[in-house]
User: What shape does this take?
Amino acid sequence: MCKSDKFSHKTDCTQAFVADDLCHLSTVRHVILILSGKGGVGKSTVATQLTLGLKAAGKKVGILDIDLCGPSIPKMFNLSNQDIHQCSEGWLPVYVDKEQTLGVMSISFLLEDQNDAVVWRGPKKTAMIKQFLNDVYWKDLDYLIIDTPPGTSDEHITVMENLKQYNPDGAILVTTPQAVSVGDVRRELTFCKKTHIPVIGIIENMSGFVCPNCSECTNIFSKGGGEALAKQSGVPFLGCIPIDPQITQTTDDNQTFAQRCLNSSSMSSIQKIVDKFITIDKDFL
Amino acid sequence: MADIPKDAPEHCPGTDSGSAGKASACQGCPNQTICSSAKPQGPDPAIGEIKNRLASVKHKIIVLSGKGGVGKSTFTAHLAHGLAADESKQIGVLDVDICGPSIPRILGLEGEQVHQSSSGWSPVYVTDNLAVMSVGFLLSGPDDAVIWRGPKKNGMIKQFLRDVDWGEIDYLVIDTPPGTSDEHISTTQYLSQTNVDGAVLLTTPQEVALQDVRKEITFCRKVNLPIIGVVENMSGFVCPKCTTESVIFPPTTGGGEKMAADSNIPFLGKLPLDPRIGKCCDEGKNYFEEVQESPATLAFKSIIDKIKDYCMKRREQIETDTGEENR
Assistant: This one.
């Protein structure tokens, strides 16, 4: 009963806001950013898994890919050749399922050829991201996960500036254990502090590889860097994700990522984070 | 300020400045209307200055990849070490990754500072014949973030290319951030008259990475940047205990080799995943000295030789071309 009250209240808000052009994000209850100073540490993979985890928990989830030069999210969901449709309210995200509980938006849907390069300088990227934030008609979402490119530049500044009015829940920082990667993530932490975005925590990805033959665990990219950084900067540590070649296979394969991903050992780390969110969410209600 | 013309009136704000043509010093200046009009101002004069500055650099190689974390900086560092193994050659490394400079750490130069002299910024030296420049040397601490939008990054890159005093060097290796945006457009634009030898594209075997590297190939073709070839990094992992090779990033679509063949560009080789490489990078050590004989060392050497050959051939080609023109 309490829950339905909450929802009806939410719809009222939506209707009140309809006159305003910038209302789409106000219907989204939680906004979570996935950040990392470093590239190739698994931002998109973590974003995908988190989305799937939340969806499995019965939430309505959207995922927005603001990596304009190297969008990977559509590939993860096997949506590479889809197009965006427009309705009177704005752009409709591409839905993964018929029930429309998982919507995806990425620049890759706007490209004619997947090999097309988006050779844009900052201002053009900024305009595109603003459009993504303002014009996508997400309908009522429980969670919006925003996947970002590496760095602390145009894309990041723009997304922070435009999200401020919607009070994003915070950012999850992804790193790999090596010092080279942790060094860049430290800078991202400074960025979060400077832009006043709360840090939900740090995830250490690619934390070790278990040889399928002799089950010897090798730390290919060393170990513990993410945890040490979390401790040092007083940010919660959300867990280690081991290297699982199955994950890359699933991200690449035509089989649905979701089915195989949920069996992966790395999913248990993600599941903990999802559970955390769900409990926090219940507290709110 | 570099953009003030020599014969400008006193207190000229500079032709590139926002108040060009609008400051009080501009009143009565014959060029006031030109400065204040919003018309595009033609090619950046810095392009010419960069051409002069880099005339003393024989070969320029850009290391690119659309994808992040595939090993651009690691490869750049090893390429530089490999080239510098020949003591008669002078090598320079320029890191244009403004937001995530990794080169200082990988080359063991964290905490170093850049010095300024009358001839420009002096790079930091790893060995006598290996000079390095990176935005990392300009930061006050490891927590410092460079939160800059495009134009500021471009200004920095321009300064790196124009104001660093490399001296006579044989190879300048340029390490880039992932993507196809400001840093890449600026670097290629500023270098457009300096005859860049070409770009080495780094990738890992998975389709998710290849997909971004294909975009980078499109970029290179759009800006007329020659491609030296593709290097596939993290190709396989040999377990140190049982020496079974595992594929960590499976090449579900044929990997870098097939992509290179499909896009008609040379494939330079595969580099195996060796935890010792990552360790050496973290500690700033030279992997070639730490681990003399390993499959990775051999793979690196063969790739570096291919790049050397390419540069030599290109140089000869250019010399015969210009020689014929002169006749």
